[in-house]
Amino acid sequence: MNIRISTEALSGSDTNLLWSGALYGLKRLQEFDHQLYFLIEDLTKQQQQLLENEKIASIKTSPDTVDLQ
Q1: Which of 43, 49, 51, 66 could potentially form a cystine with 56 if both were Cys, beta carbons 3.0 to 4.6 Å apart?
Q2: Taking every pair of C-alpha atoms in the chain, what is the biggest distance, in angstroms?
Q3: How does pLDDT run across 33-66, given as a tens digit for each residue?
Q4: What sign does the dihedral 14-38-55-46 (CA atoms) show?
Q5: CA-CA-CA-CA dihedral for 37, 59, 45, 31, to nearest 10
């Protein structure tokens, strides 16, 4: 399943962090073979680095092809 996640759902109140539990939730979704779509460029460099460290990436697809938003 392709899942679109809004940037606001990822970015925490601190521009250096993500919301509490975001990394865990994203990893769990990937473990169940769900594809994630989010606008990485809308996150700060620090937030992007957190995702990269956990090997969490956004798929390259059209927003129209997502199954769940």
Answers
A1: 51
A2: 31
A3: 999 999 999 999 999 999 999 999 998 766 666 5
A4: negative
A5: 80
Residue 18 pairs in a beta bridge with: 11
CB of 68 closer than 8 Å to CB of 35: no
The CA–CA distances, whole Å, from 68 to 41, 46, 49 equal 21, 27, 25
Q: How far is the CA of 1 from the CAs of 19, 30, 34, 46, 64, in angstroms?
A: 23, 10, 5, 28, 13
Residue 23 vs residues 37, 48, 53, 62, 67: alpha-carbon distances, Å: 14, 11, 10, 23, 21
Tell me the whole-structure pTM to 2 decimals. Answer: 0.80
pLDDT tens sequence across 1-23: 888 898 888 988 888 899 989 99
